[in-house]
Backbone:
């Protein structure tokens, strides 16, 4: 419904702050670089933009990244200025995309493309700010893949997970070797990164 909520008591109660978000208010991913600096992005069905608050979520500004992405799903910031945003490239035929920003989301440069038209890079996650992982959602016969970086996002590689299930969205790594990916009624575990 486009509602954006905030809690100040650990989730016991929530207040609607939708009016503080520049429209459209659909958000797919959030990342807090600090208690004051918070990022969001959207939206998986277009358009591609990043929102940012520098006052703990009271006020937000917005940057349109439609020139380099057609849709954005997740955002991961390593500090207040440096981070990554993932989704689908512009044009979409280039596949899933990871954008890097060093100016607090004011601009984004393409860091990685999957090259498959139907791909999205759905979620980003890091256990240590050096090793970064992304789940690839693919709706055609390319199988399940992840993308990963071992140099804080400077370079990325693609790793096959399984040919059985294309529709992966979630991922989480406990450390640089032990992690999980899941979606479409399956959860897979790795012990070797």
Residues:
């Amino acid at each position: 419904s486009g509602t954006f909520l905030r809690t100040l008591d650990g989730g016991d109660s929530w207040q609607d702050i939708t009016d503080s978000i520049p429209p459209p208010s659909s958000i797919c991913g959030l990342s807090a670089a600090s208690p004051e600096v918070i990022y969001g992005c959207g939206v998986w069905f277009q358009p591609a933009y990043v929102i940012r608050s520098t006052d703990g979520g009271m006020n937000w500004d917005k940057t349109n990244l439609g020139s380099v992405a057609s849709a954005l799903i997740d955002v991961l910031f390593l500090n207040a200025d440096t981070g990554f945003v993932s989704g689908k490239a512009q044009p979409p035929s280039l596949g899933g995309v990871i954008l890097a920003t060093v100016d607090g989301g004011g601009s984004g440069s393409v860091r990685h493309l999957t090259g498959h038209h139907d791909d999205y890079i759905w979620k980003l996650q890091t256990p240590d700010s050096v090793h970064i992982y992304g789940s690839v959602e693919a709706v055609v016969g390319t199988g399940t893949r992840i993308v990963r970086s071992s140099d804080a996002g400077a370079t990325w590689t693609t790793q096959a997970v399984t040919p059985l299930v294309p529709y992966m969205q979630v991922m989480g790594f406990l450390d640089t070797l032990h992690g999980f990916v899941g979606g479409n009624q399956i959860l897979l575990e790795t012990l070797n990164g």
Q: What stands out?
A: Residues 130 and 151 are 5 Å apart (CA to CA). The chain has a mean pLDDT of 91. The radius of gyration is 16 Å.
